[in-house]
Amino acid sequence: MIKVQNLTKKFGSLVAVKEVSFEVKPGEVFGFLGPNGAGKSTTINILCTILRPTSGTAWVSCCDVLKEPHRVRREIGIIFQDPSLDDRLTAEDNLRFHGYLYHMSEKQVKERIPEVLDLVELYDRRGEFVRKYSGGMKRRLEIARGLMHQPKLLFLDEPTLGLDPQTRAHIWDYVMKMRAETNLTIFMTTHYMQEAEICDRIAIIDNGRIVDLDTPANLKSKHNEKTLEEVFLKITGREIRQQAGESSWVQWMRRP
Amino acid sequence: MGDFWAIYILWLRDLKRYWYDKARIFASLGQPLLFLFVLGTAFTPSFRGPAGINFSEFIFPGIISMTVLFTSIFSAVSIVWDREFGFLKEVLVAPISRWSIVVGKALGGSTVAVLQGCILLSLAPLIGVKLSLIIIIKSILAMFLIAFAMSAMGIVIAARMKEMEGFQMVVNFVIMPIFFLSGALFPLDHLPEWLSILTRADPLTYGVDLLRGVLIGVQNFPLLNNVIIIAGFALVMLAIAVFEFNLTD
Fold first, then answer.
1. Contact (CB, 8 A) for A103 and B2
2. Which chain A residue lies closest to B247 (C-alpha atoms)?
3. What is the pLDDT of residues B181-224, one digit of tens each?
4. DSSP string spanning A159-217?
5. C-alpha distances in angstroms, B191 versus A130, B186, B199, B217, B226?
6. Hey, is the C-beta of A149 within 8 angstroms of any chain B C-beta?
7. Is there a contact between B186 and B208 (Cβ–Cβ < 8 Å)?
8. What's the number of domains chain B is made of?
9. Are B94 and A87 in contact (CB < 8 Å)?
10. CA–centroid distance for A237 within its chain
11. Are B154 and B167 in contact (CB under 8 A)?
């Protein structure tokens, strides 16, 4: 589903991602873990075709992200790290907007909106303006939107950041339900190590390099630790990381 | 085909946002109404217009152009908000071409500006400007041309703007000069040389002239001349906007 070879991304003198290679199989839940500034979001942004790599190649869903970004974009769904809804529109408006951007017909849009809203339990509030939504509701709506066009591959960039445990549990329930129904492939990043337990395989990335890649069980036995959290700290150290001010995405968005 | 629907939905989004925010529709009528009725009435006794036209009638097309100008630019600059609040990402990762984003945004901004212009146009009988179906249709076309050119220019500005703090600069150094030099509030003949040159360098001058010709039958330049200049300006701005959006690829 994803094949990455020697991927490198530099921002000026800062090397955000250094010669990263890995593969994700269809139907797999693949976790990408790492401290702040390790290169997680940069990698996701390259795979989503919104950042160009400095060197290396990446295939997503059988297309090269550099050569056929449009085909890749049709097949993926993305839940961004930061909010990306139009809060001056209603929930339904946001979903319809998304459907049209992804070449869905009005008939498909009409059928799909209740389905995805039911999944995240927001159907009753579909006509409300998004600015009246709570943080958790906005997140759920973004999940619904990411699944709207039935992507084969879903990117989740810290989808549960800043949410209460109940909402977090619900969000993973929705995603796993979708996965069970449609054989969705999931590529996710998170800082909550308990959440990473649901992954089939985990890559731990630090300073732009993959330092380990294995199943959660193997990681724990290999490093002789009881929890993923301890494995993570053992591999990446206990030092607090300085993120270079803003994420690479924000820097890119603020380009002159 | 996908791009066509992308343009449609981007256009619809601007229309919906306009429709949902009715307070803004009324609020943005305040300034043009002051110009029209206070300034218009105050200057009418001392104004000697061509063909017995009084000052209110003379500035009526200019004030409509002003509203169209401001509404278009404000709509286009909302791209900066979209970038700040993250919504632009949703659009940029979609499987649609960059030009359709620019065209959809320009059409959305223009339509909203024309609607706002139409509200003012409906005041024509109060001012003493006669309307007919033909005049209304011609006015809408003229307003649309102005709106499209100004929206495209707004998108060019927005693509370069990092955050909303810079917007006051844009108002002071771009929008206000364009408005003041366009002849919206004064006749273009008998101006000193330097001012005459500046007015002719302003693309909105030809838009105001076009609309004035349609509404009160007074114009300084030939109709075709006006249409070609504004349409040409619109296309150049559109091309620059598409180029700037493509840079992000």
1. yes
2. A255
3. 999 999 998 899 999 999 999 999 999 999 999 999 988 999 99
4. TTTT--HHHHHHHHHHHHHHHHHH--EEEEE-S-HHHHTT-SEEEEEETTEEEEEE-HH
5. 52, 10, 10, 21, 20
6. no
7. no
8. 1
9. no
10. 24
11. no
Tens digits of residue pLDDT in B8-35: 999 999 999 999 998 988 888 999 999 9
Q: How many Å apart are CA A130 and CA A138, to the nearest integer?
A: 7
Question: Across residues B120-148, what is the average pLDDT?
Answer: 95
Nearest CA in chain B to A71: B95
Q: CA-CA distance, B127 to A229, in Å (whole number)?
A: 74
**Cα–Cα distance measured from residue B219 to residue B209, given in angstroms and rounded to the nearest whole number:** 5
Say whether pLDDT at B71 is over 70: yes
Of chain A, the percentage scoring pLDDT greater than 70 comes to 93
CATH 3.50.50.60 holds for A2-253: no
Residue range A85-125, pLDDT digits in tens: 999 999 999 999 999 999 999 999 999 999 999 988 999 99
Q: Give the range of the structural domain holding residue B198, as residue numbers without chain letter.
A: 2-246
Residue A51 identity: L
Nearest CB neighbour to A254, from listed B90, B95, B162:
B162
Q: Does A97 touch chain B (CB under 8 A)?
A: yes
> pTM to 2 decimals?
0.88
Q: How far is B27 from chain A (nearest CA, A)?
A: 18
Interchain contact A80–B (C-beta under 8 A): yes
Q: Which residues of B161-176 are buried (b: 16+ CB within 10 A; e: fewer)?
A: beeeeebeebeeeebe
A159-210 tens-digit pLDDT: 888 788 888 888 888 888 888 888 899 999 988 888 888 899 999 998 889 9
Sketch the domain layout of chain A as residue ranges.
2-253
Could you give the strand order of the β-sheet that contains A209-214, starting from the edge strand earlier in sequence?
A76-79, A153-157, A185-189, A29-33, A201-206, A209-214
Q: From B164, which residue of chain A is nearest by alpha-carbon distance?
A: A254
pLDDT at B249: 46
The CA–CA distances, whole Å, from B142 to A228, B22, B163, B215, B216 equal 66, 25, 32, 10, 13
B243, pLDDT greater than 80: yes
Interface residue A86 vs chain B (CB under 8 A): yes
